[in-house]
Amino acid sequence: MEKKEMVVKTEDAVGSSSIPCYNSNFYPFSNAFDFSEVEKSSLGFMELLGVQDYSPLLELPQLSTVSVPHHSTVKVPSDNGKECSEVLNHQPATPNSSSISSASSDAVNDEQKMTLDQVEEDDDEEEEEGQQKTKKQLKPKKTNRKRQREPRFAFMTKSEVDHLEDGYRWRKYGQKAVKNSPFPRSYYRCTSVSCNVKKRVERSFTDPSVVVTTYEGQHTHPSPVMPRSGVSAGYATNFASVFPQAGNYLSQYQQQQHHQQLIFSTLSSLGFPCNDSSSPKNAGFTQERRLCNPGTNAFLRDHGLLQDVVPSHMLKEE
DNA sequence: CGGATTTGACCCGCGC
DNA sequence: GCGCGGGTCAAATCCG
């Protein structure tokens, strides 16, 4: 596609001061790497995701990683997707790197000053508007659907199953073939009325054992599916409680701190020089990790989260 | 029978 | 303006 243009756009978004507060912390790679070079080398994971949005991290409501007994999961920046993923895939981080996570939203990016609540309100209004128009013009679909995106968060999960149980109920509303990927992308919407959360699920074609789940929006209701006993219960509990509503309870500072810990731990465990390599919060993740790629596993063992982010071929190259 | 899924058509944004 | 790709709609179909 328009890779180079996307690179430019990314650098604008990432490297400029348009991203408030966390610029240097949350987009550390932008200054350190030549995205255009990276782009040439291979397809980024987020490119596979199609996650191309970026939004200020001020709006980041979720910063937690999720661990699953049966799926090793890591939160991935759905940021400006491509470039960030490229960084993740190909480049070591600088010592100051602190984030592989971000929110994403084309629209939100345009309205960086909006709060999440404001975004949601606007979405509600526009949704009604759109629905009305849709109903009016059934066949000649002229729904005037403005693309108003909520922040997105992507999780990469090693799993045999595409659609992971996360404590919420989803209705599939679409499926599309993904360019450059043999695996289709599925679109889900939260079944709860007045809840506009969506998620996309697709499998990485570079590592088919990895399922990428991208969430968009914020649940306006508690998880309807109470966790059962057993392994999946922990996942549901953890996920439903932490994501996507964690942002309601965590201060930005806490989020950043937590996130930085995650990243530091991850990077440092991969051999990247990080100041803070001790992250107790990560212990659970590494312990619960289920690693699917033997070769990768041997290399990574119980290291940090990046092994889920970094395609196996990348790791082998290292 | 009602809810969920499938799937082709359509819309939108973007790059050329 | 056109084409492409992503995202969504909604009728048809499936399934419990």
UniProtKB/TrEMBL annotation:
Region (Disordered) location: 71-150
A GO cellular-component term linked to this record: nucleus
Keyword set, alphabetical order: DNA-binding, Nucleus, Transcription, Transcription regulation
InterPro entries linked to this entry: TF_WRKY_IIc (IPR017396), WRKY_dom (IPR003657), WRKY_dom_sf (IPR036576), WRKY_plant (IPR044810)
Domain WRKY: 159-224
Protein name according to UniProt: WRKY transcription factor
Highest taxon, organism lineage: Eukaryota
Pfam families: WRKY
Coiled-coil ranges per UniProt: none
GO molecular function terms attached to this record: DNA-binding transcription factor activity; sequence-specific DNA binding
Protein localization: Nucleus
Family (UniProt): Belongs to the WRKY group II-c family.
